[in-house]
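Lab notebook, entry 384. We have the chain sequence and a SMILES string for zinc ion, and the next step in the workflow is to get a structural model of the bound complex before anyone spends time on docking refinements. Request logged below.

Task: model protein plus zinc ion, output structure tokens.
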Amino acid sequence: MTTALITDDRFLEHENPAWHPESPARLRAIMHALETRGMLTHPDIVRRAPRLASDDDLLAIHTPEHLAKIIAAARAATSDHPVPLDPDTFVGQQSEEIARLAAGAVLVGVDAVLREEAANAFALVRPPGHHAEPDAAMGFCLYNNIAVAARYAQRVYGIEKVLICDFDVHHGNGTQAAFYADPTVAYFSTHQSPFYPGTGAFDEIGVGEARYTTCNAPVPRNATLELYDAIYREVFVPFCDRFQPDLILLSAGYDTHWRDPMANILLDTPALALLTLRVYQMAETYCAGRLVGVLEGGYDMEALADGVCASLNILLGDRHITDSLGSPPWPGFRWNADVVVDELRQAQDLFGYRRKTRPAGPIPGMPDIDEDHDEPHPHDEDED
Ligand SMILES: [Zn+2]
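Result returned:
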């Protein structure tokens, strides 16, 4: 099982103001963790360099006016002053090129998987992409990396149906907008609600022929894995089965971790590994394992690094993960998962699929956890 890992130091060059949570430190933290855990020299990880997405690649999702606006903003930026496009989305001198490189990194991942050079792929990029709409940058995002990749897979490789799963804590409004009337690209999102950006209600399900190819699962603050797991098993799995994807793309955001300073969901690193595993299993079931992940959010450096390592372990077929941070130090709210799942299944007309209510007890499929959070984590050389 090989995983293509696509990243580049140039992703550090996208410039936000110093106060901004979407900082180069995020990628540095991830790379440091990958290095100290020996994952950069893992025999089954194939490193790939990103390339710039072309105008044609970007115009498959974005308007020409949008591209022109980002290019003009980069030209207007000075070394000290990136140009704001909204209160929290900035374009620095290098940002247009680096955003193109971020979208291009996902294209390289698609190439690696569809040319069978790797079983699956993960692109570690910034800026993130899932809030970028066809004609608007927002929410730290300039170009919609994952949407551009979905279109590329269809256009270049003749892939018919692409499913995008998004477990970032925020709703991927841009991704939804790109494919809301398109029955060939499905979008599934779990996200905190009410929360930024305010979209992603459970009854936003797609329009026309694309009805039931968008699935939104808003989750309340203080939700735990119990609710997420029920949604993944009882809604995501039948949603995948109905759609029958030929390729799965994953918007992997790690801001659902309990330590994240921007959100209020109580998942831990093993929970994030389990969600990755559910997506991986769907790729195995429906599309020969073809899965390409791309980094979206995640603003606690340790939680982000831990989460990315855990997702990569799962992609490598290794269920042994390291949890440096432990479980949430306070209990979550116990939401009635049955009620939430029933509402979602009704909105999605999924009642034809039999429910398999989980018996009480531990959640099946949980990864093996190496809890090293009480130690200063030297080297994890004793791991296999
Ligand atoms: Zn996010």
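Notes for the group: The first helix runs from residue 24 to 36. Worth checking against the assay data. The chain is about 35% helix and 15% strand.
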